[in-house]
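Consortium newsletter contribution from the modelling node. Members have asked for a concrete example of what our holo predictions look like. Here is one, prepared for the 2'-deoxycytidine-5'-monophosphate complex that several groups have been discussing at recent meetings.
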Amino acid sequence: MSFNIAIDGPAGAGKSTIAKKIAAELSFIYVDTGAMYRAMGLLFLRKGIDPKNAAAIEEAAEEAHVTIGYENGEQQVYLNGENVTASLRTETVGNMASATSVYPGVRRQLTVLQKDLAAKQDVVMDGRDIGTAVLPNAQLKIYLTASSHVRAVRRYEELKAKGMESDLSVIEADIIERDHRDMTREVSPLCKAEDAVEVDTSGLTIDQVVDVVRRLYQERAEVSV
Ligand code: DC
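And here is the predicted structure:
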């Protein structure tokens, strides 16, 4: 049986950084589910569909085919056969993904793909509903959090390092709005699974968070042998 680690939490809590490091250490496959929702979001943006138009979104989602692959260990996302990985990390695509991930037709297709990936191999999967809806039987569930201010500062620094000027208060307002949308949607809202371990990363370094997750993995792996 495969060993599944589910990591959920709001945008900017450090999920992908931690998940990638743990996956590399354990030689597990890292699955970034947010990138799949972003690929769907990119499709809707390209088609010029209003995210509030439920019928148009559901119809377009039915025709969309999202798959993933790996190049040099890095996840690649394909939208109808086109590698769209390089176009997914913008704020516009992220906001579209957040707005359209509320639709059952969008979630259904991606959830099937995610469950299938985790059934076949050891994975560290990050997202919003992994411990609650996608992998309810994951052997280890982590819920990563950090204050909205800390998350905004991280994003601000990330953009600055790329030479992009931004406004910290706008970023924080955007994060708060995205959290609200992700936590209050009807289908699979972001919430901590009952059996998830909550880790607040606000005052921790990346290595400290990795240490916590590694320790939890070692405990669970011993039990499941
Ligand atoms: O983690 P991210 O910022 O790449 O995710 C983009 C959006 O996709 C996020 O705001 C909500 C949605 N999402 C989701 O609904 N369920 C997931 N498992 C992952 C992401």
